[in-house]
Amino acid sequence: MASNVELDKMIRELHDKQAIREVMANYSRGIDRRDKAILLSCYHPDALDDHGMFCGGPDDFYEWTGPSHLRHFKTHQHIITNHTCSLEGNVAHTETYWMFAGMTEGEGKLATFGGRYLDRLEKRNGQWRIAARKCVLEWWGAEGMVTPETLAARAGGGKVAKDRTDCSYDRPLTVNPERIGLRLGI
């Protein structure tokens, strides 16, 4: 039987992991509903997000997503699936698999993409939020929407591999400062 100290530690860890999982869910809701307040609540103000074709802060990221999401898609969903979380005090490293599905403007074709969000979250003032993110694109089912240039830009966020050299193992997860300010159109 667990002691009260061990039980308290387990409850605190479960509480932290649930709060982190809610950050991931709120990110998807904020981006899909174009709700800037919800999206920004997922990030610390000084966070960096390397989305492959974009690298910068949360406010600029929100503004960058508008033209691509609103121009190319009638509707879309960011779906999160597998999620792992490693807690180290007030720092957490997560890997969250995602799928994107969107109905294109015009012909209304279904475009699909999949990959992973690699995050370093920090608990500041009792709140878990993203401090650094790398978005890794791994597959797509959208003719003409992914070009060699797109793939090259996506690869800049870190090494993708089927072994422990994959950027998901980087500790602490950081964003390459040379990529900050990158803003390519989709």
- Element-by-element helix/strand order: HHEEHEEEEH
What's the overall geometry?
globular
Q: How many strand segments?
A: 6
The number of helices is: 4
Proportion of strand residues:
35-45%
Measured between the Cα atoms of the first and last residue, the distance is 55 Å
Q: Within the largest sheet, what's the order of strands? A: 2-1-6-5-4-3
**Largest sheet report:** 6 strands, mixed
Total domains, how many?
1
Helical content class: 25-40%
The parts where pLDDT drops under 50 for at least 5 residues are: none
Task: Give average pLDDT, whole number.
Answer: 91
Concise synopsis of the structure shown:
This protein is of the alpha+beta class and 186 residues long. The protein contains four helices and six strands.
Describe this structure in words.
By secondary structure, this protein is an alpha+beta fold. 31% of the residues lie in helices and 37% in strands. It has helices at residues 4-32, 36-40, 58-72, 148-155; strands at residues 43-50, 55-56, 73-88, 91-104, 110-124, 127-140. A six-stranded mixed beta sheet has the order 2-1-6-5-4-3. It is globular, with a radius of gyration of 17 Å.
